[in-house]
Structure prediction request, 83 residues.
Amino acid sequence: MKAMIGYRQALDLVTTRSVPLPAGTQAVENAVGRVAAEDLFAAVDSPSADVSLKDGFAVRAESVCLPRPGSTGRRSTRCRASR
Prediction:
């Protein structure tokens, strides 16, 4: 069995031997798992009206997060949801 190569050597092999594939056109149903070669833009806005205030809500962390018992760090919190 051959010995494993290190990360750096593997990365060098991949970057020196890989060749990008040419861009092409695919139907949407055939594009699953592929990467876009350029930015995509929608032909029309969807939804057509500005309805962002219906999309969700925001809360202040201080309003719903409590420190965990015995914790001193800021990230060590537990959050609760209430009506």
